[in-house]
Amino acid sequence: MTILATMREAAARARGPMTDSGAAGAIVGFLLARLCDDGGFSGRSPGSDLYYTVFALMSLEALGADLPAKTGEYLAAFADGEALDLVHLASLARCRAILDGDPTDEAARDGMLARLAGLRCPDGGYSHVPDSDTPTSYGCFLALGAMQDLGAKPRDVDNLAACIERMRSADGAYANVPTARAKGVRPLKLILKYPLRIAINPFISTLGLLLPTLISGEAIVSMVLNLPTTGPLLLQALLTQDMYLAGSFLMLLAVLTVVGMLISDLLLAWSDPRIRYE
User: Are 118 and 152 in contact (CB under 8 A)?
Assistant: First the structure.
């Protein structure tokens, strides 16, 4: 059984409760509101994106809604998926598998399979990271699903299975670090490329809050230790009702907070390509 068939069976089991609760109609309405004029679906940013189109089609199919007819024309414009990365190439294959009437010819199918073969790593795995020769578990999952959607069997199954097995962690789950370590990636590069990219987002999101503390000072600590910081000065202005001095301090802190959060958002967009702005 293919990955798509398994997901369709799970969706069929969940369709009843969703319909009975009345949530299905609201979800369908939200999805159709993201439908663009060219037939694709948009995500966080304006404009159609294959990545969000596949999620929209799968959700509409799972809820038993009619699929937009013009989406087939949007998919046909990609032909064999030339210049697409693995994530969007797999999204294109899944969209065409969902739309039974999609006008995909054999040349486009063969071109997509050739494109998948070209994205394979030297050790037999696949990476969802562009221009990377280190396979990832997510990349292998995408490639396997794309080949199933295109009606093709994966080549060199033993090498692919061995690659996935090397990504198994000690707890039985799968991660990208074991494979990179087995390929001899330097420890510092390994940490910066995989664990740090996942763990750094919460730190960056709160980094902007540190900017106001540079001048605000800790009032209680400063008073106890008799430190000449701005914290006791602000507290004294509030106690004496010096509205001009207190207001200036609060305005400066508010501006620094806004600037700090803007810097945090820009750093998040730079560090994580999945984050975009509308």
Answer: no
pLDDT of residue 101: 47
Token digits of residue 271: 């560090």
Q: How far apart are alpha carbons 113 and 146 in whole angstroms?
A: 9
| Model confidence pLDDT, tens digit, residues 109-126 | 888 888 888 888 877 788
Question: Buried (b) or exposed (e) across 185-202, using 16+ Cβ within 10 A?
Answer: beeeebeebbeeeeebee
183: Cβ contacts below 8 Å, ≥ 6 apart: 123, 134
pTM score of the predicted model: 0.65
- Cα–Cα dist 111/100, whole Å: 19
CA 183 – CA 275 distance, rounded (Å): 30
- Residue 278 pLDDT: 47
Whole-number pLDDT of residue 178:
56
Q: Which two tokens stand for residue 142?
A: 């995408």
The structure tokens 């202005």 sit at 237
Amino acid letter for position 265: D
Q: Report yes or no: 222 and 236 within 8 Å, Cβ to Cβ.
A: no
Amino acid at 10: A
- Round the CA-based radius of gyration of the chain to a whole number and report it: 26
Model confidence over 149-187: pLDDT tens digits? 888 887 778 877 887 777 776 666 666 665 555 556 676
φ/ψ bin of 203: left (φ > 0), alpha (ψ from -120 to 50), beta (otherwise): alpha
Axis-axis angle for helices 243-271, 230-239 (nearest 10)? 140
Q: Are 64 and 58 in contact, with CB atoms under 8 Å apart?
A: no
User: Are 256 and 238 a contacting pair, CB within 8 Å?
Assistant: no
